[in-house]
C-alpha cells in the first residue's frame, strides 16, 4: 500500500515571500503520478500541480513549482511571491497507474495548513 | 467555480433519518468518486464508479449506499448514520478511460454533514 506523509501540519509565510511545503511518499511502484491540491477555507479542492514520475523535469505552474526527487521519494511544493489567496490547506496526493481498469485511486497526505500573513 | 456541483452544502440529520447527497459533473467525465474528509485525517476514498459501474468499495459500512444512474450524476444515500459519520463528503470526477494513464480528479465543494 502507498502512504503519503506531510510532516508540516501548519506553516506561515509573509506575503510576497517564498515557502516550500514538504511531502514524502512510500511506494514500490515505478510509474505513478503525484499531485498537489489546494483547499481554501471555502472547501473547494483545487488542483495546483501534477507530476508524472517518468518525467525528470520538475513541473511548474506560474508561481507554483515542485522539486521531485524520485530516488528519495520526495515531492515538495514551492510557492513563490506568496499571495493572501494562497492561504489554504495543501494536500499532497499519490496515484498509482492501473492498467485497464480506468479508475484510479488517489492516496492523500494529512495536509499542511498554510497561512499567508499580510 | 468548477464543473462539479454538490447539494446540499450543509446537512444536519438524526441517527434515524434517511437522506441523500447529490453530485453532478458537467465535464463530460465517466468516472466519479465519493470521499470522506474528517478532521485530522487524510481524505478517505469511499466509492468509485467508472462508466456507471462501481469499481471500488473501500470497506464502507452498508449505511452508506451509492447510486450512479448515469455518468453525470452520483448519489450517496444515508441511513441510520452514527455521530462519527459527521464529516465533509467530497465528490470528484475524472475522465475515466481504459488506458493506463494517470488522470486528474476534479472535486466538488463538498457537503458538510452533521449527525446528531
Return the structural class of chain B: mainly beta
Helical stretch count of chain A?
0
Average residue-wise pLDDT of chain B: 89
Low-confidence stretches of chain B: none
The major sheet of chain B is characterized as:
7 strands, mixed
Q: Give the termini distance of chain B in whole angstroms.
A: 31 Å
Spans where pLDDT lies below 50 across 5 or more residues of chain A: none
The main β sheet of chain A shows up as: 6 strands, mixed
Supply the helix-strand structural class of chain A: mainly beta
Helix content of chain A: under 10%
Task: Spell the H/E element sequence of chain A.
Answer: EEEEEEEEEEEE
Q: What's the total helix number of chain B?
A: 0
Observed structural traits:
heterodimer, A: 118 residues, mainly beta, 6-stranded mixed beta sheet, 4-stranded antiparallel beta sheet, 0% helix, globular, B: 116 residues, 7-stranded mixed beta sheet, 55% strand
Written description of the protein model:
The complex is a heterodimer of chains A (118) and B (116). Chain A has 118 residues and is mainly beta. Chain A has strands spanning 3-5, 10-14, 19-21, 24-26, 32-39, 46-52, 60-61, 64-69, 74-79, 88-96, 106-108, 112-117. Chain B is built from no helices and 11 strands. Chain B has strands at 4-7, 10-13, 18-25, 31-37, 44-50, 53-57, 64-70, 73-79, 87-94, 106-107, 111-115. In chain B, strands 2, 4, 5, 6, 9, 10 and 11 form a 7-stranded mixed β-sheet that branches. A 4-stranded antiparallel β-sheet of chain B has the order 1-3-8-7, with no helix packed on it. In chain B, a hairpin with a 2-residue loop joins strand 5 (44-50) and strand 6. Chains A and B meet through strand 5, strand 6 and strand 11 of A and strand 5, strand 9 and strand 10 of B.
